[in-house]
Amino acid sequence: MDTLFNPSSTSSFTFIQTHKNPQSFSLRTCGYLPFSSQFKTQSWVCLKAQEFHNLTPLNVLKKRGLKCVSSGEGLADEGEGIRRKNLAVFVSGGGSNFRAVHQATVSGDVHGSFVVLVTNKHDCGGANYARENGIPVIIYPNTKGEPEGLSSTDLVAALSKYKIDFILLAGYLKLIPSELIRAYPKSILNIHPSLLPAFGGKGYYGTKVHKAVIASGARYSGPTIHFVDEHYDTGRILAQRIVPVLANDTVEELAARVLRQEHKMYAEVAAAVCDERVIWREDGVPIIQSKANPNHYS
Fold first, then answer.
1. Which intervals hold domain Formyl transferase N-terminal (predicted)?
2. 186-228, pLDDT tens digit by residue?
């Protein structure tokens, strides 16, 4: 993101590079307040402190990483001035998290729409749910069991045709190809049923995670949502929610308790992503700006 800033004015212009065409940029106006009460615009921008170290009064932000500033006393109404986002989802099984977020898009709690589903199992529950709701299904990868599956290059091309803004992994068990990660930087999210970095990595999925948590004697577990990199469960953590591990928990009981929180948290995070409330601190850590209180981050 490149920003042209005029320190003698309360506004700036921010050019946002698009996924679909790296040579194409969109323009936004913004302010760098809250240091002045004359801020009128309804647009938003998140500024990296390192880009403005020589500006006053933004020098005070040096040690805070990122600062997201707004007009007025709260966020704009849902969707006001913000384009509805196109979402892709990747599933390998029943897709309960996908279903939860999809219902949130239908109810209007998430300002986005699922426009395609990707799966490595054409007959899995998540894929069937997508078809029932008019969402196209793509098979990836190409294997002996799924001969109609796409290659990595074809997958990127297919998603480009759907003008995807963000990709949500919801129980997808295959490693995401590097071609896709490069095509969608900071735009692919995954949910994992433990408090990463604990109990993560290759082989840790489903009930295997909860069994390992109980066997370890850990008193707390819970879901983690993180951005995806080229390895299993090592991307930057965006959100976590604590779930107690009870003394006599079975794997099934702990899994059910964590899953309830997964459904709630994934819908909330999807809403933040679609509302453009994910802020990247100067140290590379993503945080979420509260919709109710723009001065609060989690």
1. 85-269
2. 999 999 999 999 999 999 999 999 999 999 999 999 999 999 9
Q: Which of these is catalytic: 102, 192, 226, 263?
A: 192
Alpha helices in the chain (DSSP H): 96-107, 125-132, 152-161, 178-183, 207-216, 251-274
55: Cβ–Cβ under 8 A, 6 or more apart, which residues? 5, 7, 32
Select from 173, 26, 187 the least CA-distant residue to 112. Answer: 187
Structure tokens at 234: 């090592």
Q: What is the pTM assigned to this prediction? A: 0.74
Domain check: are 171 and 257 in the same one?
A: yes
Domain around 267: 85-274
- Amino acid sitting at position 33: L
- Distance (Å, whole) CA 113 – CA 106: 8
Concerning whether 192 is annotated as a catalytic residue, the answer is: yes
**Are 109 and 161 in the same domain?**
yes
Tell me 49's DSSP state: G
